[in-house]
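User: Structure tokens for both sequences below?

Assistant:
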Amino acid sequence: MQGSSRPDPQLLDAAEFCRHLVRDNSVYAFLAEHRTKLFPDEMFADLFASDRGRPSVPGDVIATVMVLQSLEGLSDREACCQLETSIAWKVACGLALDAEAFHPTVLVLWRNKLRASDHPERILEAVRAVVEESGVIAGKHRRALDSTLLDDAVQRQDAIALLQSQIRRVRKLVPGLSHVYVHEMNLAPGRPPCDFEDQDDIDRVISELVEDAFELVWAADELTFDEAQADAVALLALVAGQDVEPGERPGSWKIATRTAPDRIVSVVDPESRHVHKTTHSYRDGYEVSPRR
């Protein structure tokens, strides 16, 4: 059953209390004002064949989250965390300050519904139309605004995010590696502590993550694994080397100036790859044969 946003403000409506904290020329302010017109209920009516059952998350909220997720380059879990903790996201989505986020799998479900529909790029087309008319998101668009929101059900990860995710996964799957020293501050949720305007500091974080990954892989040689553990360690070894090259100082690493062939773009689904559309444009997803 399709859900709808409430037209009346909630008791702790984020926009009522905190709209002044969101810049007027921001994407969040624009979505807060135009969200329901940009993504009306009828836009998603075909995705719900029945009017029975529990109401879905409102389509305008899902579409807003998908747009912000793509603009900020977040995974599904990170996007839901932002929805629950960020005032700007709550204002954009028309939620109350105390509103909880939906489960990350809801985004996967909606993407699958949209992908299987007769009009899979409806969210993208609505955003494009607004961008062309108003330029409100000029300079802020990422791959989702020049390609599609539905390429894959995982978020493309950069080198730091790939290493963080896979180091965490290996440590969780392989208890026998718990004694191996790693830089714990780099593995906390979100981005590691780093001045991302300072290339030397970026190189420091990359070096620490690569060093930790290799230490785990080397220590793993002494252990016996099941198939899932072995695959996780092998994937860690792969992502540790695909995006980096030796730095200026012995033992240091930096982001490579080239992109590795057949690069892993997500450890959530290692089969996802860069799928080239033209020589100047690519997207992340799966190469499939055309329909016959």
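Moving on to the next sequence.
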Amino acid sequence: MILALALSLAMPVIEAEAQDPPPFKPKVPLTFATEARMVNLTVTARGVDGKLVKDLTSGDFTIYEDDTPQRIQFFARVFDPSRAADEGQEGAPDPTAIDLGMLFDTSTSMADVLNLSQNAAASFLESIPRARALTTVFFDSDIRLSKYNSESQQGLFDRLQKAKSTGDTLLRDAIAVYLSRISDDPGRKIVVLFTDGEDTKSLISTGELKDLVRSSTVTIYPIVFAGKYSDSTAALQAKALMRELADLTGGEVFVPRTFKDLAPIYAGLLDELAAQYVIGYIPAVDPAPGEHRLRVDVERAGVKVRYRRGYRVAPPEKEEKKK
């Protein structure tokens, strides 16, 4: 069912790249195969004072999968000057590099705050260090996806300023389309979502979207604006979904009211991205199809961590075909 829905999402997608894009082929289900593979976590740590903790080591962490401790086989700190000499060497990709996804809601419900959203996105692009890869998705009644490399990201500013508010909202479909295009390269998959959270026309359901998110390695940071119908029941439910997506992936929700709110939001988000940990392990037992819970404990007193709460393993292919 999810595969059929994801394939149907290909129809409204307009894609632009520096080179001719390949045909749209969603990598669905976005789930681990039943054979063992590395499980990667992006972890943010803060002390009791709320400040970021940057000096933890692998020995400070214990990873549990379904309450069973796992042996950490990969560990990297973003804030680690000793790694600088290795960066850029051929055959040694930076495991902390960022593949950035920026999703922009340009639907009618965003009309009153579109200018604020445009300024927010432009300011964020000016502030964040160049990503290894940048994928943008503009969505309303259509989904328009573009890819930029580190040299071509400047061209996005013009697209941002020319965006117009129109049409319905394909929010869940847009997230699903983005998830289908995530690369398998090592590194952090960061999504910044500019929206009021409402959805009017998506084909994919909330439950199916959550399954796709659980099956990915993204960290989602929704920046949620007060849209045209911000006091409606649907809008409140939409904001709750944004909070849940952030919680599932180890991200955080931001709610700017005016342009003045944006600077501290960016400062906090950039500080967080510069202080994260990337931790990997291969499950001690081959994971069975279904959901698997993750827990990260830290030995240092008073340290709290955010991370994705689990992952999903696809059923064997033959079982998928029987459904």
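User: Anything stand out in the second?

Assistant: The longest helix spans residues 233-249.
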